[in-house]
Model the fold of this input.
Amino acid sequence: MRIISLLLFMIIFHIKGNSQITEINELLQLGNVRDWTLTPDGNEAFFTIQSIKQNISILVGIKKKGKGWSKPYKLPFSGKFMDLEPYITFDGLRLYFASNRPLSKKDLMPKDFDIWYSDRSCKSCQWSEPVNIGLPINTSGDEYYPSVTKKNNLYFTSTYDYGKGKDDIFFSEFKSGSFLQPTSLSESINTDGYEFNAYVDPEESFMIFSGFGRKDGVGHGDLYISFRNNNEWGQAINLGPPINSTALEYCPFYDQNDQTLYFTSNRSNIEIKDKDNLKTIIAKLDAYENGMSRMYKTKFNLDSLRIHSTALAQKIKHDTNLIDHHVHIMSPTLIRLWKAWGIPFSKPDPAYSDIDTIITRLGAKQIKLISMAYVYSSSEFGSKDVNFKQLVEDENNYVAAAKMKYPMDIKAYFGIDPMSDFAMEEIKRCHENLKMFGLKMHFNASQVYLTERKYQIRVKEVLSYASENKIPVLLHFDNSHRKFGMPDLRILSDSILALLPPIELQIAHLGTSGGFNSRTKLFIDSYKELTSDPSHPLNRHKITFDISAVALDKDSEGVQQLDEDNFAELAKYLRQIGMGKLQFGTDYPLYTAQEYIKTLREKVKLSDSEIISLLKNK
Done:
């Protein structure tokens, strides 16, 4: 319970510290307004205008005009009956809404509230006559607040007898051209109180809804958020003040492009004082926050909140415990040289070279900071005029200096090419003089081929020193040779590691060069085959695999992003390896910590408990 209370405090503090609740000025003179929905391009919005007695309810549109909005206009089919709670679909061509209009134009009397829709063939075209979506959604009871996903799945509010409380949020899957029988969402959403007005994002990854009569309520109806993982909705979290007040907050809508939360509230800040004259009192009564339904908006950092709002946040706190095991930093010299050769950089230089900027952008408390000194052995630096040894020393010195700014939070790794003439000299200098924590070898940058004897000798010398001096090693094992695989792993195991005392070895990118493909699977399968024998030499060492640059949702340095099938197969392989043998790494600047966690949750679809297990590994 203490953890949950702490989590709630963190969420409320986060929102309070980053949100400013503002009104939509163009709606100031419209009386009761509610139910905001926005087209995907952000250029058109629809909402509801109601009379004070709420016996008139009309759907209204508004279009973007400069930095503001045009004058509202009434939708042509609305006005005669109670229409409210519009929701525009992802293509902007169908508008769902709730209405008590009769099923037939011949009928003049209103009926119970059903869900209806109106279509248009283009964004400048006229709206069609509304259509009732019928059974099994609409019944003799009331159905409200439709929210429709990209898959055409429908979420809505109703008081069906088989619900969990007074009002429940229901779900209906769209399959083979029709809606299936609705089901009440789980107890993580619905309680024995009132849950209603659910906005569900088009990807069904999160929902924001209103709840009243819940034990953690702030006022007369609060906004809550829940995230979906592995097809399950997580425990709903109260968004707290300043979004929630002592009044009713309802009808949420989230604009992901602008990271803005829109919602309706009947909050009031009116305070009449004895000295107020009638003019002052009238002005106060006409204020935006006067107890009438009004639309509000606020910037809302969904990604940051996502981490704090699940069981994951109950086990780890991003600002204190999150460790990134694979972070790069580059000296200004290295950046300058690469730019001179035409290598593009997408971010300002400080994002790559300034440790303060890296710490801030990355979003991890503790990091393994890696020198890229090993790149100076590549063919790009082939000029005879270049002092390779000095460049390597300077690059490693740069990382050591960065570590000194955050001595408790950074473990500095020096970079080394095992084939360089000064490799052992530089290793001893970094270890004994600079007191750096670990060493990094990159077999692709250094073109190391363990199938050749001369490479075996040099690598064994480096790993032997690391083992004797208890220096952790980060190894980019893949050399990009087309025959790389089991032979290389056998040589590393039987001809090198078998002869050494136990060593701490972190293998980067699941053994290859990033992404997830046949080479990755071959390496993992080979490792599993070798270690299936408990007496195998590999089992004597502490060997872990970092997952940096593996779950790619974007192309990176010639490595293609993963598709849905790749992500699913990656998840299977990660589970086969076991979360206890994996280490979280971003390959920064490729990803920030929050971005990569989001990918693991939403693309790889790791569960909260799996992510917890992964992130606690040190």
